[in-house]
């Protein structure tokens, strides 16, 4: 089965599962509002409720209040919220995504991605139980190696690529969840920097444009063929 057909089939099954979960009162909205303060130190319960109320107000589900500010005075707002997915701005330079991942046994994981939007963008991915206790990445996802991000893994042996990787130092990565599917994508962002593009103009074209995608199967993430 090719990647497109796999995504379509998974989408149908996932949406059906989401409908069943909704009937049980499970939602990322509830998880966000009930998250303890150590998860979002800049957002207290009133701030989170204000963010949700303003988002729902813009969709005719309530009134829109004043812009919400985090505890350091930065404006924060929800951009997207569905049953299983939430994306919001923590401040002008930081985006946060939450994703509910249904477990094949019972319950859900809550995954969070925090992304610095300053070039090059850099993401941190974490997983929590429904009780908001952090879960180790081991056993949930096998993080990619540098060569996995290249169209041809052998390209990492090219002289220019080696020089580029040495110059960039530790690679930067940006991660995203699909809004309606249990798919996580990760791409290299180090070469989004203009200075590296000027120094190594051929290297960005050797990277997979959309990075690497992972599909949640109820137990762990598995790599999708790119």
Distance between the termini: 13 Å
Sheet-strand content, in percent, reads: 25-35%
Strand order of the largest sheet: 1-2-3-4-5-6
| pLDDT averaged residue by residue | 88
The ordered H/E elements are HHHEEEEEEHEEHEE
Describe the protein's topology.
Layout (H helix, E strand, L loop, with lengths): L2 H21 L4 H7 L10 H14 L18 E5 L3 E7 L2 E9 L5 E9 L5 E7 L5 E2 L23 H10 L4 E5 L5 E6 L5 H6 L12 E5 L4 E3 L3
Antiparallel strand pairs: 1-2, 2-3, 3-4, 4-5, 5-6, 7-8, 8-9, 9-10
Structure description:
This protein is α+β, with helices and mostly antiparallel strands and 226 residues long. The protein is globular. A hairpin with a 5-residue loop joins strand 4 (108-116) and strand 5 (122-128). Helix 2 (28-34) packs antiparallel against helix 3 (45-58). It is built from 5 helices and 10 strands. The chain has helices at 3-23, 28-34, 45-58, 159-168, 194-199; strands at residues 77-81, 85-91, 94-102, 108-116, 122-128, 134-135, 173-177, 183-188, 212-216, 221-223.
Quick gist of this model?
The protein is of the alpha+beta class and 226 residues long. It contains five helices and ten strands, in the order αααββββββαββαββ.
Question: Can you tag this structure with a few keywords?
Answer:
226 residues, alpha+beta, six-stranded antiparallel sheet, four-stranded antiparallel sheet
